[in-house]
Amino acid sequence: MPSEALLSVRDLRIAFGPVEAVRGLSFDVRPREVFAVVGESGAGKSLTARALLGMVPRGATAGGSVRLRGCADAAAERGRRITLVPQDALSALSPVHPVGDQLAAAVRSVRGLSRAQARARAVAALDRVGIPDAARRARAYPHEYSGGMRQRAVIAMATVNEPDVVVADEPTTALDEERREQVLRVLAEQREAVQAALVLVTHDLDVVRTHADRVLVMYAGRAAELGAVPRVLGRPRAPYTAGLLASLPQDGPRRRRLPALRGTPPSPEALGPGCAFAPRCPVAAEPCRDLEPEPRNVDGRLVACHRADVVPVPLQEFV
């Protein structure tokens, strides 16, 4: 494991019976970096995010390892050194307890402070994320908060104990542009305040381009490409990454139709022996259909593609 790794994931596998939804995923997260995980729906992004905290769905089994600073099992540190900002803030908060009480309980479970000390820390955390009149709002229930305030409250809960790693699972889904930027700004401020790394799970490549340091592109439960954001999104070497970029709306004259990545992701039950992206790939060749590629270093990033060092894929090939 590289010495700079804060969170180290090795051969992560998540299966539902005999079907693997995440298949041998390995990566490192460095101290204080923003590490993005992207891919289409069904790629395994959210499963991976929750597995970092040991939160696999009922009926699923997990294999491999997720370790903090090379030794501690990350799941054993959930709520203390690794925390979650979920997509649905309302369901993440108890409807029958005031928000401040929930934050104070999180503080006491980790730090063993008195009720008064934990309460003061909870109010300070709400104030830090921009909740107006935090001492009064701490006594309110989640349904008395607006959607944006609830999202801020779960960010406060995720950072109140100053964790090493914050995992944010699609925190901006279904938000308009203004609220999206507000949430991302609060996340960035709180990450900086507690000196944490951020694992940001998203489908929004514009968010990755402007807020992340490195990016893991997932397809069919595996890594397609992993590297620094300017390199991966500026000159992709995995055809799947190029396809995602090609599917973004382009500047310039209005098109008759929105661009779209051809085909659909495969079902985990129907994966063949070769590259899972081969049926959709415009440069697939014989080895792509018979042998699943392993990640290898190409042009300063990891790429799982037989053709990565042969053909930098033109974006127009996909639309």
Helices, by number, come to 11
- Report the oligomer: single chain
CATH superfamily label of the largest domain: P-loop containing nucleotide triphosphate hydrolases
CATH topology of the largest domain: Rossmann fold
Q: What CATH first level of the largest domain would be assigned?
A: Alpha Beta
The main sheet comes to: 8 strands, mixed
Q: How do the strands line up in the largest sheet? A: 6-7-8-3-9-10-12-11
| Overall pLDDT score | 90
What count of structural domains? 2
Examine the secondary-structure arrangement and name the CATH architecture of the largest domain.
Answer: 3-Layer(aba) Sandwich
How far is the N terminus from the C terminus? 39 Å
Summarize the structure.
The chain has 2 domains: 7-212, 3-Layer(aba) Sandwich (Rossmann fold), CATH 3.40.50.300; 239-318, no CATH class.
